[in-house]
Design a protein that fits this description.
472 residues; Growth Hormone, Chain: A; 17 helices; globular
Length: 472
């Protein structure tokens, strides 16, 4: 595949990365500590919004698989999503001065809009992967660009938030509580999203924006619904989604609690918040470089399981050692560097399984085509996003419930939170994370598709296509 196409395909994930960064890192603390909505209500709102919105993904995937235009199946959706994505994101961070009930419904509604319009872009965009290449290992090489750009976009905005938008001022020493900073954050994110969607659409237009040769048949509504569930009832897909349920629930929990952990558990100084995104970017680059060779060495499913296990071990080590009284105390010169080093390594190993999930999902397409006779890339990738949204919402809800359950105070001042509250927060967080990742590891190894099987399926499908061409 041309290198420019890989870059354009990857750049499309910046919009998704910006959205994920906002929902996972700042949305809870913004609506809780800045706007004043209780943490459990914020978690509930995000979970409800994401679950409702998640049902839209399979519909978009199903419709994009059947879109018949001179610009192909995917590109009309990409171009149509540009303005709605940016506008809905901007509105999410500008809530009105309503009652708690009104704010709850505003958050639910605006969150649904953001996630739905992102789905209009992300589902057709990532569904282009199986069309771009059928090579078993090249798919891993190509999908990693989406993770690289998605994380880079999110981390760039994260760095800008900590270094520019949410820095302390004389009027507001707690920079994370500056409402006007979140407004600048929202505007910058909207601009990044717009550029991302346009680059992806224009950069892949020449290669894929053409009328499709074959389309799945159109049927009455109930037959279409039955066909959706029938297609998604693929064993390999269900195993992959099972692993994803555990992995993304853990990601939602970790991201939603990260600001609390850094601010109140580790008491990050200002410089650490600015270094934090840079160290995470090192982890992303590590995953970008390591995932393909490890996948070739161990195979996709074993590589995913092994690297997920390494990631959780490294990520929980600081918390386990702190609970045991073996980690350096806050304020010691080595505390933050050791913590950042371990979390950076954990991030790198943790992203690798997600890259491989995307590559394995592309392999499911041919397995399904062999069984159903249809190529429904959009539906499968939408199903994956459906799972991610539902489960990440559950993880965010778990984070909000965790903050409330341990008795974490509102308007808390770093260094002045009761030590017992901090210990309870770390202990429950450690237990939940260990359980989630153990489930993911045990499920990854049950994925039934391998490289030899894939090659045989591609060969048989090519022969069938040639036979149809001759008979036609």
């Amino acid at each position: 595949m041309p290198f420019g196409t890989k870059l354009a395909f990857g750049a499309g994930a910046i919009a998704y990365g910006v959205k994920d960064n906002g929902f996972a890192v700042f949305l809870l603390i913004f609506y809780n500590q800045v706007i004043g909505l209780s943490a459990d209500l914020v978690g509930l709102a995000v979970m409800v919004a994401l679950i409702i919105d998640a049902f839209i993904d399979p519909v978009i995937g199903h419709l994009s698989d059947r879109t018949n235009s001179r610009w192909g199946r995917r590109h009309p959706w990409l171009y149509a999503s540009v303005i709605p994505v940016a506008a809905s994101w901007f509105l999410l961070w500008h809530p009105p001065e309503w009652s708690d009930t009104g704010l709850l419904f505003y958050l639910i509604g605006s969150a649904i809009l953001v996630r739905s319009f992102i789905a209009m872009n992300e589902v057709p965009s990532i569904a282009m992967l199986p069309e771009l290449t059928r090579d078993y290992h090249e798919r891993t090489d190509v999908i990693r660009y989406r993770f690289l750009f998605g994380w880079m976009g999110g981390l760039l905005l994260l760095w800008l938030a900590y270094a520019v938008f949410l820095t302390p001022t004389p009027e507001q020493p707690a920079g994370l509580l500056r409402e006007e900073g979140y407004h600048a954050y929202a505007l910058t994110g909207a601009i990044m999203m717009t550029v991302s969607v346009l680059v992806a659409a224009l950069g892949t237009h020449k290669q894929l924006a053409k009328r499709p040769e074959r389309l799945p048949p159109r049927q009455p509504l109930m037959a279409e619904i039955r066909a959706i569930f029938g297609t998604l009832n693929n064993r390999a897909f269900l195993v992959l989604m099972g692993a994803g349920i555990f992995a993304y629930a853990n990601q939602g929990l970790n991201f939603a609690t990260s600001t609390y952990m850094q601010t109140y558990v580790w008491e990050f100084p200002a410089w650490a918040f600015m270094v934090w995104p840079v160290t995470l970017l090192v982890g992303v680059i590590f995953a970008f470089l390591v995932a393909p060779p490890v996948s070739r060495w161990l195979g996709k499913k074993r590589a995913a399981a092994v690297m997920a296990a390494i990631a959780v071990t490294l990520g929980l080590l600081p918390y386990v050692l702190r609970l045991m009284g073996l980690f350096p105390a806050n304020g010691e010169p080595e505390t933050i560097p050791i913590f950042l080093a371990l979390i950076t390594a954990a991030t790198g190993f943790g992203i690798c399984p997600m890259i491989l999930v995307g590559s394995m999902l592309a392999d499911v397409i041919e397995d399904s085509e062999m069984k159903t006779g249809l190529r429904e890339e959009g539906l499968f990738f939408a199903g994956n996003l459906f799972m991610q949204k539902c489960v990440t919402g559950i993880g965010t809800f778990a984070a909000g419930s965790l903050i409330t359950m341990v008795g974490f105070p509102q308007n808390a001042v770093p260094g002045q939170v009761d030590a017992e509250v901090i210990d309870r927060l770390m202990l429950v967080f450690t237990i939940l994370t260990a359980l989630f990742i153990s489930g993911a590891v045990l499920t990854f190894v049950r994925f039934p598709l391998g490289e030899d099987d894939h090659r045989e399926r591609v060969r048989q499908l090519a022969e069938s296509a040639a036979s149809r061409a001759r008979s036609g």
